[in-house]
Amino acid sequence: MTDAVELRRRTQELLAAYPPSSTDRLDFLRARFDAGLAWVHYPEGLGGLGAPRSLQAVVDEELAVAGAPDNDPRRIGIGLGMAAPTVLRYGTDEQKARFLRPLWTGEEVWCQLFSEPGAGSDLAALGTRAVRDGDSWVVDGQKVWTSSAHLARWAILIARTDPDAPKHAGITYFICDMTDPGVEVRPLRQITGEAEFNEVFLTGVRIPDSHRLGEVGDGWRVAQTTLMNERVSIGGMRLPREGGMIGPVAKTWRERPELRTHDLHQRLLKLWVEAEVSRLTAERLRQQLNAGQPGYEGSGMKLAFARLNQEISGLEVELLGEEGLLYDDWTMRRPELVDFTGRDAGYRYLRSKGNSIEGGTSEVLLNIVAERVLGLPAEPRTDKDVPWKDLAR
Questions:
Q1: β strands within the chain, DSSP E
Q2: Does residue 331 come out as left (phi exceeding 0), alpha (psi in the -120 to 50 range) or beta?
Q3: What sign does the dihedral 325-328-332-337 (CA atoms) show?
Q4: Which of 277, 362, 369, 389 could, after both became Cys, cross-link 163 (CB 3.0–4.6 A)?
Q5: What was the pLDDT predicted at 290?
Q6: Residue 343: per-residue pLDDT
Q7: pLDDT of residue 228
Q8: Is 230 an active-site residue?
Q9: Rounded CA gap, 376 and 361, in Å?
């Protein structure tokens, strides 16, 4: 069993062989992956050592003290938080060897082709079709709200392969090359002025069967691994005290006493406590991950994340008064990441509106928490056993 002492020794060996001050950033990241220090709980040869997940903090601390570069996790969050766990669990040995290393080093950016205009929050009703043609699948359809599609080399994709089966049963999960013919990415300009989201049109895109994850028709089960990890990565991210959205408004409160009122004070105190409770609960959730796969509790954390962000950003705009109505830059951009704390209050207020949609709508997550966590009776679903082709659309 690899313990903390052994991990520190291995980390120091890595630093000695590849000094951060004189080693190319990408060369260092590749060496770190090969040494098993990328994500220590992954298997040997795939960036890990089969060690407990909790020991990753030991490696991260040693590398931070030495000034070693990281892999810019905010930029490649979809790959790290969603694609990698799914490839690890369902991928073949060849798929794991091909995709995980450049995914972790950031050489290849990933996106998620799940949502569709016609399916809305009912993801299982998706209509993008994949038809088998020899050793390949021909895919036609449209996806929407695709973060980082304009940067991505690869995408995790679910498509309908059996329209005669009920909607949950006729789906298959693929890895799609975003550079292939027939893949068209169009920007979706948002209320913030930016276009971090995209819509993706798939016209006769050929995906080799070797890029299928899981069995044919089992895509919904594979997708659940992605979705549960996605919600944990969004709602359960590691933050310091006053990290995230509560930080800027607390800073403004301390530095500008002329803006304070009794009512705003009471609301800020309430939200500060809720943000701290959410942060500590996320820490407990990450500790539960040490024992296995994420559970449905991640849906509750993602719910809290969305609600808190919207309430806190609303309070910040109100605290700033007329100044809060200003907006720094409405230039149309296609950014590489979402920067909540690097922009002004107006951006945070507008961008947080999307938090209750992305990663699963709050309405759907409330149902998941009610049924899967609290054990309440399920809502009636009359279309559950109806063939997809017979559903009203």
A1: 110-113, 129-133, 136-143, 154-160, 171-177, 183-188, 197-208, 212-213
A2: beta
A3: negative
A4: 389
A5: 59
A6: 87
A7: 82
A8: yes
A9: 19
Please give the pLDDT value at position 4.
93
- Token pair of 301, please? 């954390």
Q: Collect the ranges in the chain with pLDDT lower than 70.
A: 1, 235-236, 288-296
Eight-class DSSP state of 259: G
**pLDDT score recorded for residue 54:** 85
- What is d(CA 290, CA 297) in angstroms, rounded to the nearest whole number? 14
Task: List, in sequence order, the alpha helices (H) in 261-361.
Answer: 262-289, 297-320, 345-351
φ and ψ at residue 200, rounded to 5 degrees: -125, 125
pLDDT at 374: 87
The pLDDT assigned to 294 comes to: 59
Which one, of 304, 317, 321, lies nearest residue 362 by Cα?
A: 304
Which residues lie below 8 Å from residue 267, measured CB to CB, with a gap of 6+? Answer: 315
Distance CA 351, CA 191 (A): 8
Q: At what angle do helices 93-105 and 25-34 cross, to 10 degrees?
A: 140
pLDDT of amino acid 289: 64
Two tokens, residue 311 = 């309430």
pLDDT at 1: 55
21's tokens: 């001050």
Q: Give the per-residue pLDDT at 236.
A: 63
The reported pTM is 0.90
Q: Given 230, 316, 336, 358, which residue is catalytic?
A: 230
Q: What local confidence, expressed as pLDDT, does residue 350 receive?
A: 94
Residue 352: CB atoms within 10 A of its CB come to 21
**Measured distance CA(154)–CA(110) in Å, rounded:** 5
DSSP per-residue letters across 136-148: EEEEEEEE-S-TT
| CB of 213 closer than 8 Å to CB of 221 | no
Please report which helix (H) or strand (E) contains residue 10, including its range. Answer: helix 4-17
